[in-house]
Description:
Blueprint: H1 2-8, H2 13-32, E1 37-46, E2 53-62, E3 74-75, E4 81-82
Antiparallel strand pairs: 1-2, 3-4
Amino acid sequence: xxxxxxxxxxxxxxxxxxxxxxxxxxxxxxxxxxxxxxxxxxxxxxxxxxxxxxxxxxxxxxxxxxxxxxxxxxxxxxxxxxxxxxxxxxxxxxxxxxxxxxxxxx
Length: 106
């Protein structure tokens, strides 16, 4: 009875919506390697004159959330966040040319 209801509801569009939601959830769970869920809610309301029942479906998909990347920052004495360690001395670097030029090879 339940599967028949899903197939017939909205002339098959509910079945199509559920199928698409499940496919998207499967892809997200497979990609993230984390759990997700799909919840189907069926709501039944009696019609105003007592003739029949209005049936509606709610589809709620909760795919796994991607973890945001992180970055390393350092704290300054003034409690600000900076990319370079304020306790690390800067090194003066200069280009010295090809390695062979300094060994007398040429």
